[in-house]
Amino acid sequence: MGNQGGKEKDDKGDHLSREQLEDIHRLALNEISDMFKWFKKEAPTSVITKAEFKGVLQRMGVEDPFLQDLIFKVFDGTKTGCIRFPEFVLALSIITRGTPDEKLEFAFQMYDLDDKGHITREDMNKIMTSFLNLVGGDVVTFSGKKFESVEQLADAFFEQMDSMGDGKITIEEYKEGAIRNPDIVIGLGLSELRN
């Protein structure tokens, strides 16, 4: 509410100052400006609806509606059913320049299908099937491990991550397991964690 630290922000989070965007998102002003131009072109009303976002993803080759929903979910940080420019910039900045912790939290939010704070084996099977459908080909990890099926890959991933053995992967388990998994380190661009 009101003016926090001399920076204006409205109640919906529609407006952040340039300084806030640059500080929070580690992007140069010219990058933010380019993003804003693209955003205004795609969303002249200042919001991108779920249907519009899915259309953008489809033009980028992401045709699976389930995967489109997962990606929309993490871009719609305020859970309003549409994406405003600050949310858009935040998501892109995390993907491209986020810290390892931010990238892991971003991925976890996408994989936590029902927003209950954990990932189930069923969630992991759905997600990995969707990703495999996107890229096609054999079930092979970034590190070259081959699996007979998506279920086998999801099971191996789940076994490594579910350190409590309770059938759920929490954010803490995900972060701990992810930094030991070369495929996640490579997949999320966490090169600073590689030795």
Automatic annotation (TrEMBL):
Key word Repeat present: yes
Domain EF-hand intervals: 99-134, 149-184
CDD domains, A to Z: EFh
Keyword Nucleotidyltransferase listed: no
Protein keywords: Metal-binding, Repeat
Gene Ontology molecular-function annotations: calcium ion binding
SMART domains linked: EFh
Full protein name: Calciumbinding protein NCSA, putative
Taxonomy, superkingdom: Eukaryota
Pfam families, per the entry: EF-hand_7
